[in-house]
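task queued by scheduler; priority normal; single chain, no ligands, no partner chains; default sampling; output format set to structure tokens
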Amino acid sequence: MTSSTFNSASPISRTREATPAGSRRPAPHGRLRLTRRGRIVLIGLPLLLLAAVLLTVLGFFTSPAKASSTRDSLAVTSSVKVTVGSGQTLWAIAGAVDPQRDPRDVVADIVELNHLDTSVVRPGQVLFVPSAA
């Protein structure tokens, strides 16, 4: 009978496994390695956002703040004073003052000219009403 002995003190040799061609070993811990696409995203996305913010701010400072493009459209609206009679409404006043226009537009102009909160008027109240041009 042959006996074989196992020596636990003998060194075990480790061989490095062969890596396939073209593959890379993983990065050591603590160091970040980015791919080309990762670098483009990491640098390009903040640059793109910065450009958008700069263009927006530039647009605010360079755009003219005009309510009208011509001086002619800034003319004062001609108006007449009307005293509200008993039973009259803004709709009736609008139809009497400018029958060619839509009464809704005339009522809106009356409300705007007189800074009215509601469309309710009282007898004896004096209103500025846009006159027909």
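post-processing summary
- DSSP finds three helices and two strands in the chain.
- Helices lie at 36-62, 90-97, 103-114.
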